[in-house]
Amino acid sequence: MSRRPASPPVVAMIGGGQLARMTHQAAIALGQTLRVLALRSDESAAQVTPDVVLGSHTDLDALRRAADGATALTFDHEHVPQELLEKLVADGVNVLPPPSALLHAQDKLVMRRKLSELGAPVPRYADVSSVDDAVAFAESVGGAVVIKTVRGGYDGRGVVMASSVDEARAIVEGYLADGVPVLVEERVEMRRELAALVARSPFGQGAAWPVVETVQEDGICVTVIAPAPNLSYETGSAASELALRVAAELGVVGVLAVELFETVDGRLLVNELAMRPHNSGHWTMDGARTSQFEQHLRAVLDYPLGDTSALTPYTVMGNVIGAPQTPAISMDERIHHLCARMPEAKVHLYGKEERPGRKIGHVNIVGADWESLRERAERAAHWLSHAEWTDGWDPHT
Ligand code: ADP
């Protein structure tokens, strides 16, 4: 038996967003309290855990305060600079995933290069140091390209589509003039987007949840269907194996999400990596034996990993995304109506103020018929954000 400490371990998470909030929920069940480094006391996770360190993830002192006495230090986002992470490691802090792994979720160019080196399928891409590089690449793939900032994008920010060489030239010119490093890649003709979610522990144990379909609108994930409908056993297994291999090769500890494109001709290409609980895994809170949040804790604490099997044939998650106009009726009243109409809906709200386009919660629904679940999860999520029933339902008639 390994010797484990007498008091509960403390996991410190950098970032006080919804991922930290939901990780704290999982920590409670394990008899723990998640420590959170938050910018403000009203952030999602800072509202719910008593162990809050206020400060910035770019301030070494704040990071050190968060790390003090923690069994492991992990992340709600990937924005902590490498230099600071290396200082923490030098202090003896158990940073998980290690900075050398996390770099692949921070820098899209490093990630593309590494995946190519590992033989993992990625979209054709080019490193761009001049407008000519971008133009030459766009010409070579027929004009339809995507320009991405190498660092710092999320939810589609920092991703711009170009339909022609001229458009690509203009966009790249703009970025380079501002001194923002970008890469250019082919615009993939895709059937849909998938995500393979896995976890890996320092001991080297790996676990994979069923591969899911993620539905995006304007670069933001709106719906997740778990497992991905009509995905062959072979393709699903190949995606999971690829994700487990990437986790092992990069030395990831914790949850790893591998965002994938399924091309119109049936190939899988890796789009992005995230080394933390991920939106594509929120369904696991109600639809899997072990949630991604519990699994992330288990992994960074080097516990044996939990069973990742699904509890029902399908789970559909609908993101609650702030409406262009915040509804006049309160969220409390919206929840009340939702509970009345859809007792099967599992609501998870993040305690965030409503703003257009902001993810403020999600709804999970489990069952057997994914099309009906999708319709209901999207209807429930739309109701919570817009206070409108998409099918015109009126409780008073
Ligand atoms: P972010 O880092 O902001 O999440 P992503 O790289 O995941 O950005 O891109 C956001 C979305 O843009 C993807 O989910 C996908 O819908 C679309 N996209 C990204 N890259 C490509 C591509 N090469 N071809 C076609 N669509 C793409």
TrEMBL record:
The gene is purK. Homodimer. Pathway: Purine metabolism; IMP biosynthesis via de novo pathway; 5-amino-1-(5-phospho-D-ribosyl)imidazole-4-carboxylate from 5-amino-1-(5-phospho-D-ribosyl)imidazole (N5-CAIR route): step 1/2. This is N5-carboxyaminoimidazole ribonucleotide synthase. Catalyzes the ATP-dependent conversion of 5-aminoimidazole ribonucleotide (AIR) and HCO(3)(-) to N5-carboxyaminoimidazole ribonucleotide (N5-CAIR). Catalyzes the ATP-dependent conversion of 5-aminoimidazole ribonucleotide (AIR) and HCO(3)- to N5-carboxyaminoimidazole ribonucleotide (N5-CAIR). It comes from Mycolicibacterium chubuense (strain NBB4). Belongs to the PurK/PurT family. Residues 112-301 form the ATP-grasp domain. Keywords: ATP-binding, Ligase, Nucleotide-binding, Purine biosynthesis. It is an enzyme of class 6 (ligase). It catalyses: 5-amino-1-(5-phospho-beta-D-ribosyl)imidazole + hydrogencarbonate + ATP = 5-carboxyamino-1-(5-phospho-D-ribosyl)imidazole + ADP + phosphate + 2 H(+). GO terms for molecular function: 5-(carboxyamino)imidazole ribonucleotide synthase activity; ATP binding; metal ion binding; phosphoribosylaminoimidazole carboxylase activity. One of its GO terms (cellular component) is cytosol. Gene3D superfamilies: 3.40.50.20, ATP-grasp fold, A domain (3.30.1490.20), ATP-grasp fold, B domain (3.30.470.20). The lineage of its organism: Bacteria, Bacillati, Actinomycetota, Actinomycetes, Mycobacteriales. It holds the Pfam family PurK_C.
